[in-house]
Design a protein that fits this description.
This protein has 4 helices and 8 strands. With 207 residues, it is of the alpha/beta class. The protein has a single domain, classed as Isochorismatase-like (Rossmann fold). The longest helix has 14 residues. The relative contact order is 0.20.
Length: 207
């Protein structure tokens, strides 16, 4: 697959809390860094996303008496998975993994900073209405095809890819550049959505 100047690599949430030893560590999550370092030089444009929650965020299980991480509750915008406290603004857990070295990144997009609503996708909050501004940024720069890598495949990476397709972008996930949380049937469910939406899933060696 040939990379062009209209392509952008989006590196999703490669932060300490999602890596080894983190508050919401994704199994083998650190392994994606080598893949990202290998493919990054192929891209003229790179964006990073950063989960950026205030303390006491509404997606944290600790906010609700008697609730445990990975339970689901209904909030005003729909069902929400509850998570361990993670990516709290200003904390070490919210910082990017220090092994990640991408000095050529053009934009760092913070998401999840509204206390009452979670944000998996790089494009919309979980209400599926409130935009992050990323779509406009990419459209103004005439970037039309999005490649995604990072954490986690079945949540923030996957939701970003689906929203990219809904907004009219081509979306390609680098499978070996991601790792999944695999909560229940989350991987199978989102891969069915990829197939329906036209999200391509490839290995980095195909670039």
């Amino acid at each position: 697959m040939q990379i062009t100047p209209q392509d952008v690599l989006i590196v999703v949430d490669l932060q300490n809390d999602f890596c080894l030893g983190g508050a919401l560590a994704v199994a083998d999550g650190d392994a994606v860094i080598d893949v990202i370092h290998r493919v990054a030089p192929k891209f003229e444009h790179i964006v990073q996303t950063q989960d950026w929650h205030p303390a006491g965020h509404s997606s944290f299980a600790s906010v609700y008496a008697g609730r445990q991480p990975y339970e689901q509750i209904k909030l005003c915008y729909g069902m929400q998975t509850l998570w361990p406290d993670h990516s709290v603004q200003g904390s070490r857990g919210a910082e990017f993994n220090p092994a990640l070295h991408l000095p050529q990144v053009e934009l760092i997009l913070r998401k999840g900073f509204r206390s009452h609503i979670d944000s998996y996708s790089a494009f919309f909050e979980n209400d599926r209405v409130t935009p992050t501004g990323l779509a406009g940024y990419l459209q103004e720069r005439k970037l039309t095809r999005i490649f995604l890598a990072g954490l986690a495949y079945d949540f923030c990476v996957g939701y970003s890819a689906l929203d990219a397709r809904w907004l009219g972008f081509e979306a390609v996930i680098l499978h070996d550049g991601c790792r999944a949380i695999n909560l229940g049937d989350s991987v199978a469910k989102i891969e069915a959505e990829f197939a329906a939406a036209g999200v391509a899933v490839i290995e980095s060696a195909e670039l």
